[in-house]
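Budget justification note: compute hours in this period were largely spent on complex prediction jobs such as the one shown. Inputs:
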Amino acid sequence: AWTMANFRDVARTKIRAQVSSGRVICGLSGGVDSSVAAALIHEAIGDQLICIFVDHGLLRAGEADDVIRIFRDRFNITLIHRDASDLFFAALEGISDPEQKRKIIGGLFIDVFEQEATKLGGADFLAQGTLYPDVIESVSVSGGPSAVIKSHHNVGGLPARMRMQLVEPLRELFKDEVRALGRELGLPETMVGRHPFPGPGLAIRIPGAVDREKVKILQQADAIYLEEIRAAGLYDAIWQAFVALLPVRSVGVMGDGRTYDYACALRAVTSTDGMTADIYPFDMAFLSRVAGRIVGEVRGINRVTYDITSKPPGTIEWE
Ligand code: XMP
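Corresponding output:
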């Protein structure tokens, strides 16, 4: 019978055959796909794999630390952590167009990755967590309608000048199979079962211009929302849940004083592939508990709304 244990054995052998004694570099993002690819390749070739984690400062609260803890400390994978957040925030300053934000982040991501690869003296192979649906999508719609609506910077990869052969051990797998493989490899459930997260990160969850201060506010609200979702046992029933920080300030009251702070929107959807989505029907008690905690605990937010738009006509993200 075909099991993930078989797949793991076969993949290991294939990776060794492809790579031989060459050096492989892999970009880690904290997402499921690159994490599973890295763990699998490390199992096959050990220290011939070097992971590069370009930290753009736009991850959820605690996720950069998780990546380091899991890969460096627990799996003993050679990991370069490059905190490039200053570069990203500087490049994003005053930029409010969604597509321009994506381009800036995607371009800088590649530049920084390339810098780190060059510092290492280069590599023979580049590992990517490409899945079967990515293969299909990039063949059939590259430049097609979805690419026009939103350019996904993590699909498409690095410039030709880097000239490395690709190692893509997940090319035949669907997402649920990648998750099963991740469990088989001993990756923690919090990473393997994680909701999809966009490459441009929190930058596209802050409509309008992005800065460090706004990211910090959003991270705090988002962490509370996710904590409550997990505590209510709802995480796995939801495809994606997140907070968007709105570029709107509104008046509120706090104690004896008047506040004038940001509004945020809670988003939670169910979906099977992200192409269409329905809103998750939280009960009011849950929503008001989250709203109370966010307004009470996060300085800078004094109003919480719930986004009840399905896809289509909405999109999952706000940008
Ligand atoms: P939308 O907002 O288009 O999102 O309904 C569909 C799925 O794609 C994710 N998404 C992105 N992923 N880079 C990514 O890697 C992006 O620029 C990007 N934009 C949207 C979104 O989180 C959802 O899962």
